[in-house]
């Protein structure tokens, strides 16, 4: 059921900024509500512009996040959104259908430009996760960004969204800025940009191995050049540092995986494509298997053998890690199959074990992704120096381990260690599965517990 939108003050700022600045960027982290703010602005622009909007985003975000976000709010219920994803036939059908907003993933940009064959019907373009455009160069660089570069300035409005505009340094800004002003602020070419704000330093013995280092004045001057076209929303300015910033990331299971899930939920029995049959003999076993399926894998026997079913949650996790832009990420899993799949998909990650070296390396910033089971990350562990981002890949009923792993990097520990930064908690939830019930039940338990603690505090302090 769609709900009423009550924007925070800074979301009003985003909406007004997007309407007042046809070509601009909004730099705001995940969980700050920039998607619904942008959709609100787009809903107004569709009334005044003579053409639909195009949103370019990572695949999962284009496929699910933008359509789902529009469906969530009452004031956006009138918007028709078409996702140009899937195989070529599905993309062509979506492109041909009438819509207010079209969404497409970056990988399909060359296809879209070719399919339109010189036409460009989009009055507004939104580049979500705009750092994907950082590789743009006039004569070289990434093919996707170059495809967009041929048509981007034919749109009346061009909006860039990201929480991490320069994850690898100031060099990342030129490509993104070009789509806003065609080089007016940071230079007509990347070479001119480098020559003005960087100096080359030879690396090693190879005379051709050169690294460009920013000049001492580069940061302040580049910031000054972009200030009139970039709105920055800093979470710590708008959220209480005593409360984590919580973000719900809903993923849609692929049709085949959803059919298997429904078979297990309805019949306590399913058959995998491999021929394996899996049966739940009681409600407890059925619950466990449903949660396994929601995560993406299913145990096929009592010997620990399992089969992968989908990677929807893995894709969502990759998006979070990408947006973190090098900041360490703590990932909570539940089943051993979760850990195995996480380690295979993210080889740069390490599992939290009993070795003191692992804990030291995490707190020293040497581990980009740390996989931890909530039962193994409880009392006594200090993880706050290593990072402030926690992702729940899997969900389980137990309240205390859930609260304990949050507390390992929580606001109190961040403050105690002198870190003035918000804590981000991302929940990856498989839509239409038991994940949703676990979340609701856990929140209910927490509510009861909080009421009890408050009552006890009142009684002890009359």
What does the secondary structure layout of this molecule look like, with pairings?
Layout: H1 9-20, E1 23-28, H2 34-48, E2 53-57, H3 59-72, E3 81-84, H4 88-96, E4 101-105, H5 109-116, E5 124-128, H6 143-149, E6 157-162, H7 173-181, H8 190-197, E7 198-202, E8 210-214, H9 218-226, E9 230-233, H10 235-238, E10 245-251, H11 255-267, E11 269-271, E12 277-279, H12 283-295, E13 297-299, E14 306-308, H13 312-324, E15 329-332, H14 336-345, E16 350-351, H15 356-363, E17 369-372, E18 389-392, H16 399-408, H17 411-416, E19 424-430, H18 434-460
Parallel strand pairs: 1-6, 1-9, 2-4, 2-5, 3-4, 5-6, 10-19, 15-17, 15-18, 16-17, 18-19
Antiparallel strand pairs: 7-8, 11-12, 13-14
Helix pairs in contact: 1-2, 11-12
Descriptive notes:
The protein has helices at 9-20, 34-48, 59-72, 88-96, 109-116, 143-149, 173-181, 190-197, 218-226, 235-238, 255-267, 283-295, 312-324, 336-345, 356-363, 399-408, 411-416, 434-460; strands spanning 23-28, 53-57, 81-84, 101-105, 124-128, 157-162, 198-202, 210-214, 230-233, 245-251, 269-271, 277-279, 297-299, 306-308, 329-332, 350-351, 369-372, 389-392, 424-430. The chain has 462 residues and is α/β, with parallel strands linked by helices. It folds into 2 domains: 9-237, Tandem AAA-ATPase domain (Rossmann fold, 3-Layer(aba) Sandwich); 239-462, P-loop containing nucleotide triphosphate hydrolases (Rossmann fold). The strands form 5 sheets. It has a 7-stranded parallel sheet, with helices on both faces. Strands 10-19-18-15-17-16 form a 6-stranded parallel sheet, sandwiched between helices. The model is unreliable at 456-462 (pLDDT under 50).
């Amino acid at each position: 059921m769609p709900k009423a939108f009550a924007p925070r003050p800074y979301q009003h700022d985003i909406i007004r900024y997007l309407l007042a600045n046809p070509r601009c960027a909004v730099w705001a982290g995940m969980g700050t509500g920039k998607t619904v703010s942008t959709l609100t602005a787009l809903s107004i622009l569709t009334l005044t512009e003579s053409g639909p909007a195009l949103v370019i985003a990572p695949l999962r975000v284009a496929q699910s996040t933008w359509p789902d976000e529009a469906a969530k709010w009452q004031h956006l219920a009138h918007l028709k959104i078409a996702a140009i994803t899937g195989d070529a036939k599905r993309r062509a059908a979506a492109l041909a259908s009438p819509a207010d907003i079209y969404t497409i993933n970056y990988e399909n940009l060359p296809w879209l430009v070719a399919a339109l064959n010189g036409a460009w019907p989009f009055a507004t373009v939104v580049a979500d996760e705009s750092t994907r455009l950082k590789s743009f160069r006039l004569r070289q660089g990434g093919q996707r960004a170059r495809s967009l570069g041929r048509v981007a300035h034919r749109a009346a409005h061009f909006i860039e969204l990201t929480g991490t505009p320069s994850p690898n340094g100031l060099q990342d800004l030129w490509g993104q800025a070009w789509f806003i002003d065609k080089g007016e602020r940071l230079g007509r070419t990347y070479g001119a940009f480098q020559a003005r704000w960087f100096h080359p330093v030879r690396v090693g013995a190879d005379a051709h191995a050169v690294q460009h280092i920013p000049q001492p004045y580069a940061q302040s001057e580049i910031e000054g050049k972009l200030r009139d076209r970039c709105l920055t929303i800093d979470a710590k300015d708008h959220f209480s540092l005593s409360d984590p910033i919580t973000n719900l990331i809903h993923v849609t299971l692929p049709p085949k995986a959803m059919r298997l899930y429904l078979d297990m939920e309805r019949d306590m029995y399913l058959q995998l494509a491999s021929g394996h049959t899996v049966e739940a003999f009681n409600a407890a076993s059925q619950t466990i298997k449903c949660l396994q399926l929601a995560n993406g894998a299913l145990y096929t026997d009592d010997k620990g053998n399992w089969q992968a079913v989908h990677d929807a949650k893995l894709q969502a996790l990759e998006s979070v890690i990408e947006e973190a832009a090098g900041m360490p990420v703590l990932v909570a899993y539940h089943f051993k199959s979760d850990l195995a799949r996480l380690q295979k998909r993210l080889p740069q990650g390490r599992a939290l074990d009993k070795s003191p070296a692992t804990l030291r390396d995490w707190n020293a910033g040497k581990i980009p992704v740390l996989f931890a089971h909530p039962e193994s990350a409880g009392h006594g562990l200090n993880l706050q120096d290593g990072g402030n981002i926690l992702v729940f890949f899997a969900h389980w009923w137990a309240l205390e381990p859930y609260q304990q792993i949050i507390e390992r990097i929580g606001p109190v520990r961040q403050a105690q260690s002198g870190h003035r930064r918000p804590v981000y908690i991302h929940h990856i939830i498989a839509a239409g599965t038991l994940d949703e019930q676990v979340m609701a039940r856990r929140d209910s338990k927490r509510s009861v517990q909080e009421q009890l603690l408050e009552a006890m505090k009142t009684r002890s302090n009359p």
